[in-house]
From TrEMBL:
Keywords: 4Fe-4S, Iron, Iron-sulfur, Lyase, Metal-binding. This is Aconitase/3-isopropylmalate dehydratase large subunit alpha/beta/alpha domain-containing protein. GO terms for molecular function: 3-isopropylmalate dehydratase activity; 4 iron, 4 sulfur cluster binding; metal ion binding. One of its GO terms (biological process) is amino acid biosynthetic process. Pfam families: Aconitase. The keyword Iron applies. It comes from the Eukaryota. It comes from Corymbia citriodora subsp. variegata. Residues 90-359, 362-500 form the Aconitase/3-isopropylmalate dehydratase large subunit alpha/beta/alpha domain.
Length: 510
């Protein structure tokens, strides 16, 4: 089995601005090291480079008078300001506002309280309402929430309401989509240069399209429903440069787990996280969405990937609305910059009970598990299931623990039954999953990612150990407060299902 080069750790933690970060979180050895970098240093890329010590000054000559980052430019456009700097407070025009069945009712209540029972929303075509969290359940309060969404959308004549009426068979609900963050992209609501807000912390997923996307609370959402505006403080930007060819056993989940493990769950608090470099450019849109999805697990305000030909190609059949991408200026000011050589990274997991408890999958091989969960906005996209199917196909074996599959959207569910898996001789994901002994793919929704009512599919109602492609592993996140969740890529999740232990996917992919 081929192995990545392990660079020995430094004798002291590296400095980032005024803070110091160690390299805790690994089971034992780590795939990367950290070291300071100066302009005179070698051009060889190491795993992480401490930020430049000299402050980056804005350009004062030439066509660019005030150099800005992508996030600053987007917010400047949305606030009609010629230039912005981190810390500025500005009123921003909202391009898209999304809410779902958990937060929608509360947001509507605040809207009516503040603007009046008969008030109308600021723009019925810029509001997207997506039931997705607690859908396939007999819980009366959960079902009532969807009824409240339906009543509000009818009253306000909301154009984009993805309703579900028949819970017994999602396929007879043509309007129903599934997980909001994936549906937003698939239905063409994500566009470069725009501002997208949602009453869900993982709204930052849409930053993969080169836009400013962040989660907000019900109060802000209620205000935005009436005005189309929100007051925001401009965040400083952390820049993550990822270079090197992506090994065939890695996915974007490994990249973001590495970053969160490096900077901690508080390392990007109210900061923008910008992802660039040849590795990022090689990722498809779904993988970029995984990368941006979990910036909030580092405390980030938003994540963003510069729009390129991959972005534009994805959007071709998704939207007809014009959009204008923006990019960070060459002399834009970044609070910190980190550099990674992805070719040296190994498959990772995040151990219970925090997304920054980074560990090598191969060093956790003695961790016995009870189940595997493949789904959610982070790990329930088409590419995620194709990756899992690749591992099952390569092994030719059956899973040793219950393996639950929850497609994010109706489109993903359909892909599982129609798209042939490369190298399978024409087999679909669903056929490969059935041969491997997995559960039948469930109705598309957030499923057990947020726990939900007790009858939620695959919810942990007992203290189980689970390898999951979701994004959080806090106590009680998937149900039982004593459950243990190991966050992992679909590759690692599928490999673990085949052995009943946390397993490095290279055991099957090489």
């Amino acid at each position: 089995m081929a192995s990545s080069t392990v660079i020995p750790p430094p004798t002291a933690p590296f400095a980032t601005g005024k803070k110091e970060f160690g390299l805790s979180g690994f089971c034992s050895s780590q795939p990367f090291s950290s070291r300071k970098s100066r302009k005179s240093a070698s051009k060889k890329i190491v795993s992480v480079m401490a930020p430049q010590q000299a402050e980056r000054r804005p350009a004062t000559t030439g066509s660019v008078k005030n150099a800005m980052t992508m996030t600053e430019k987007i917010l400047a456009r949305a606030s009609e300001k010629p230039a912005l700097s981190p810390g500025d407070n500005v009123w921003v025009d909202v391009d898209v506002l999304m809410t779902h069945d958990v937060c929608g009712p509360g947001s509507f209540g605040i809207f009516k309280k503040e603007f009046g029972e008969n008030a109308k929303v600021w723009d019925r075509e810029k509001i997207v309402i997506i039931p997705d969290h607690y859908i396939f359940t007999s819980d009366e309060r959960a079902n009532r929430n969807v009824d409240i969404l339906r009543d509000f959308c009818k009253e306000q004549n909301i154009k984009y309401f993805y309703d579900i009426k028949d819970l017994s068979d999602f396929k007879v609900n043509p309007d129903y989509k599934g997980v909001c963050h994936i549906a937003l992209a698939q239905e063409g609501h994500c566009r470069p240069g725009e501002v997208l807000l949602g009453t869900d912390s993982h709204t930052c997923t849409a930053g993969a399209f080169g836009q400013f996307a962040t989660g907000i609370g019900n109060t802000d959402a209620g205000f935005a429903l009436g005005t189309g505006k929100i007051l925001l403080k401009v965040p400083p930007t952390l820049r993550f440069v990822m270079e090197g060819e992506m090994p065939e056993y890695l996915m974007a989940k490994d990249l973001i787990l590495q970053i969160i493990g490096e900077i901690s769950v508080a390392g990007a608090t109210y900061k923008s996280m910008e992802f660039v470099g040849s590795t990022v450019e090689s990722l498809n849109m779904e993988e970029r969405m995984t990368l941006c999805n979990m910036v909030v697990e580092a405390g980030g305000k938003n994540g963003v990937v510069p729009a390129d030909s991959t972005t534009f190609e994805y959007l071709k059949d998704k939207t007809s609305k014009p959009y204008e991408p923006v990019y960070s200026d060459e002399k834009a000011r970044f609070l910190s910059e980190y550099r990674f050589d992805i070719s040296k990274l190994e498959p990772l997991v995040a151990k219970p009970h925090s997304p920054d408890k980074r560990a090598l999958a191969r060093e956790c091989k003695d961790v016995k598990i009870d189940r595997v969960y493949i789904g959610s906005c982070t790990g329930g996209k088409t590419e995620d299931f194709l990756a899992a199917a690749k591992v099952f196909l390569a092994s030719g074996k059956k899973v040793k623990v219950p393996t639950f599959l929850v497609p994010a959207t109706q489109k993903v569910w359909l892909d599982l039954y129609t798209l042939p898996v490369p190298g399978s001789g024409g087999k679909t994901c669903s056929q490969i999953f059935e041969e491997a002994g997995c559960d039948t793919p469930a109705s598309p929704s957030c499923g057990a990612c947020l726990g939900g009512p007790r009858d939620t599919y695959a919810r942990m109602n007992e203290p189980k150990v689970c390898v999951s492609t979701t994004n959080r592993n806090f106590p009680g996140r998937m149900g039982h407060k004593e459950g243990q969740i190991y966050l992992a890529s679909p590759f690692t999740a599928a490999a673990s299902a085949l052995t009943g232990y946390v397993t490095d996917p290279r055991d099957f992919l090489q």
